[in-house]
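Q: Structure tokens for this one, please.
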Amino acid sequence: MRYEEFKVGQKYTVKKIITTEMVDAFAAITGDKNPVHVDEEFAKTTRFGSRIAHGMLSVGIISAILGNDFPGPGSIYMKQDVKFFKPIYLEEEVEIDIELLEKIEEKKRLLVRTTVKKSSGEIAVDGEALLLFMQE
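A: Here is the predicted structure, written as tokens:
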């Protein structure tokens, strides 16, 4: 899409299952091997009761959506504010919602809300991202 075609209030939603393989790969790539993410026996002893996904894994999925789907190619991530509210468990389906909050016309920037919801409807991750839109 061209910048001019984006409208404030426009939304994009996708569902994903956060798999064990995704969490293990994220741990291997980043080196974040906190046992609450990679060791089921340890995780059972925590308040979570089971392994949970890295919070930044969900932000990485948001990044992929922003760069590939909405707004898509031509958008450059400039800033992300994020808050983590609820854990995401392995093999849990989540819904990722992107909503266009503001267009900053003079600089071709987009401000979007980025939300990850659990299957229960609870918000796991919430934030805002600022994007530079480069495609004409």
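A few notes: The first strand starts at residue 11 and ends at 18. The first helix runs from residue 20 to 30.
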